[in-house]
Design a protein that fits this description.
Elements: H1 2-17, H2 21-29, H3 40-53
Length: 59
């Protein structure tokens, strides 16, 4: 089940991790938009850790 979840997440996020040229231009024109860009490796690490261990509560 974990392997399936990993493949689904990787497939879904990979579409967002490589933005098309028009979106890259928007990021350059409006740098605050770049915060919405997902780095595949970083996102997968967080998502898979949460899947395995759960999400710790915030205090």
């Amino acid at each position: 089940m974990f392997s399936l979840q990993t493949m689904v997440m990787a497939g879904a996020v990979s579409a967002y991790s490589t933005p098309p040229p028009s979106l890259q231009a928007a990021y350059q024109a409006e740098p605050e938009l770049a915060r919405f860009h997902l780095e595949l490796r970083d996102y997968l690490r967080q998502a898979l850790t949460a899947t395995l261990l759960g999400v710790p509560p915030r205090h």
